[in-house]
Design brief:
Layout lengths: L8 E2 L9 E6 L6 H5 L2 H5 L5 E4 L5 E2 L7 E2 L8 H25 L7 E6 L1 H10 L8 E5 L9 H4 L6 E6 L8 H12 L4 E6 L8 H15 L4
Helix pairs in contact: 3-4
Length: 220
């Protein structure tokens, strides 16, 4: 049986019951501590939000440290798809438990991913019956894109940010994801950042904050 996900959290800055959830999904070889550092920046505009950054379910098999959502040792499409789907069932259960535990609906959830975490955010988020309110993907790609037209359930606004100097995932991954999402009727905003390697820059954080505020922010 798969172990339940766990990891660091931040907020709500108000100190009260959260009015929304942002789940941050890290990349290959990292863990939840890698992305929880984004939470204070996002929280300045979302004081009622709880940020949670779970550790991926598997030890990384390409490094002596860190975690992975699925293995990339075998890059055949069928193998990657099987890994994504196995991790997706674990992540879905985690998200369901978080929402239920805080008495929130899927429309009060946003997913933010980096690299492999972006792959998971897109795969899971577009297949959830209720929500999420938004998906933010940094330096990632769309996997199982060929199955998306038949499997898509939800069409939240998606922000994709990718560096044109990324040595890990080429900028063409951004073009492919943008085209596939638009073809599936998903509202997508794609940004190619000049000189950015496999990383997140201040402009990416600003763009992500703007989408999160637009979709999760409480209005007086």
């Amino acid at each position: 049986m798969a172990q339940p996900l766990d990891g660091p959290s931040f907020g709500p800055a108000t100190g009260g019951r959260p009015d929304s959830l942002v789940v941050l999904l890290h990349g290959l070889g990292a863990d939840g501590n890698d992305l929880i550092g984004l939470a204070p920046a996002f929280a300045q505009a979302l004081p009622g939000t709880l940020f949670v950054s779970p550790d991926a379910p598997q030890p990384c098999d390409m490094a002596p440290y860190g975690r992975q959502w699925f293995s990339l040792q075998d890059r055949r499409p069928a193998t990657i798809e099987a890994g994504v789907r196995a991790a997706a069932s674990i992540l879905d259960a985690f998200l369901d438990g978080l929402l239920a535990g805080h008495g929130l609906g899927g429309d009060r959830l946003a997913l933010v991913g980096f690299s492999q975490g972006t792959m998971m955010s897109l795969h899971v988020g577009l297949r959830r019956t209720a929500g999420p309110a938004a998906i933010v993907g940094y330096s990632g790609s769309l996997v199982t894109g060929n199955k998306l037209p038949a499997e898509i359930v939800s069409r939240p606004p998606v922000l994709l940010v990718h560096g044109d100097a990324d040595p890990i995932l080429p900028p063409s991954a951004l073009d492919f994801a943008e085209a596939a999402l638009k073809a599936a009727g998903v509202p997508v905003d794609a940004h190619l950042r000049p000189g950015l390697p496999h990383s997140i820059d201040e402009e990416g954080v600003r763009l992500g904050t703007a989408l999160l505020v637009r979709t999760l922010g409480r209005r007086a």
